Predict the structure.
Amino acid sequence: MEVVEQFVASKTGRPAQCEDGVVVIGSFAAVIDGGTDKTGLRYSGMTGGRYAMLACADALQSLNPDADCSAAIRWLTKTVAERLPCGLSARERPEAVLTVYSQARREIWQVGDVGFWHLGQPEGGVTGRKLIDRYAADIRAAILHVELDKGVSQSTLARSDPGRRAILDLLNEQAEFRNVLAAKELAYPAIDGCEVPAKLITVRRIPDSVTELVIASDGYPCILSTLERSENLLSELLALDPLCIDKLRGTKGVTPGNLSFDDRAYLRLMI
């Protein structure tokens, strides 16, 4: 396994605030995406997303090279659990999602919406965006389109984002669906120190014919075959849709002063 390209960027332009990360160690490679904080809580001076991301990165560093997916997710979960105070509610628990490639098993392990791409997959990658985010993004987009139709400027909406305010309670409450199968189609997985149901974890075998693999966080709307192509497409879409209500439709836009709507991480491997 050889790294061809690797890149991490903070949406704010400040690396110390970035909640995305890349790990390549031994027979494992991963992209980790810490969940965007909505509580204002800090852990060792960090947002919950960055704290959870770094905990997952540390866990991968010490993961048994022979571990299968179940053992790996248990180890990641245990590591995060040991670093959190007791008694946290679901919405207070830091979380991270990730996609891991196991060279020994030639498998992709997905917990959440960090995507991947290789030849034979549709261009744009396999992502698995959670359903509740799609609902929230549609509500936000509808509200901002109404405001634009009223004549409110894009710059004003970028600063105030009434669509984001409208969905904030939903974004907070969705933590109740995390790792909870009883939530049915709204259930989604994340590493938060609680057990991740096997049903919510995706394991895919990488064909022996595949020699290149890309893993990237959802800061990239499409995962393309090279970093340059992925970055160029992101730049084009940000210029066209800075509010992130059309082609970049999502739960947040580009906050004034920021470089993008989300942190991003990209990893391209020869396998």
Remarks:
- The helical segments are 48-61, 69-82, 131-149, 154-160, 162-173, 227-240.
- The longest helix spans residues 131-149.
- The chain is about 30% helix and 20% strand.
- The chain has one domain: 2-270.
